[in-house]
Amino acid sequence: MSKTLYAFDLDSTITKAEILPYLAKELKQAEEMDLLTRQTLEGFIPFDVSLTKRFNILRHIPLKRVHELLSELPLDQEIVEFIRTHQTNSIVITGNIDVWLKPIIVKLGCPCLSSITCLKNNILELIDIMDKGKAISKLKNEWEKIIAIGDSTNDIPMFQLADMSIAYAGVHKINIEVAKQVDFIFDDSKELCAFLNQL
């Protein structure tokens, strides 16, 4: 059994913006996407319901274009550097869409667990939405200690099962429900990574 795994949320933890609203600008539907995303982050809409709605809006953007857009999405360089230095014991756990994330995951060089899609009649279909709690549960069989880093209500199942939970307010303020579930809160990625390096 390996020692410590760092489990990172993706959107607004590693990225400097929420991915789906960022993509929605391509379809000129950023306002609707922003609203759905905010309501989800604050826990007003269940993640699976929200993701399905948001995916259905965005799935018609050609994959090549999604990759072009996401290759330009700003990332938190302190966190990226931490993950690159700890590739063998870092993982990204995200509800986001598997085939869309390649440009980001390639930059990180670590494994990624995400929602799963498949192509049916040239249309992207969502077939399995990531359950972060189940993901952490399975990983606990392989790792002695799991440290979860995220920012929203969607990360609560991950926070509850991890050995240590950290909320990172790099983009969003941490809401009270998330704050109740975590051991530490950081709003500076340099301080966060310095803390992780001391563990």
Automatic annotation (TrEMBL):
The keyword Hydrolase applies. Keywords: Amino-acid biosynthesis, Hydrolase, Magnesium, Metal-binding, Serine biosynthesis. Its EC number is 3.1.3.3. GO terms for molecular function: L-phosphoserine phosphatase activity; magnesium ion binding. Pfam families: HAD (PF12710). GO terms for biological process: L-serine biosynthetic process. The keyword Metal-binding applies. It catalyses: O-phospho-L-serine + H2O = L-serine + phosphate; O-phospho-D-serine + H2O = D-serine + phosphate. Pathway: Amino-acid biosynthesis; L-serine biosynthesis; L-serine from 3-phospho-D-glycerate: step 3/3. InterPro entries: HAD-like_SerB, HAD-like_sf, HAD_sf. Its cofactor is Mg(2+). GO terms for cellular component: cytoplasm. This is phosphoserine phosphatase. It comes from Desulfovibrio litoralis DSM 11393.
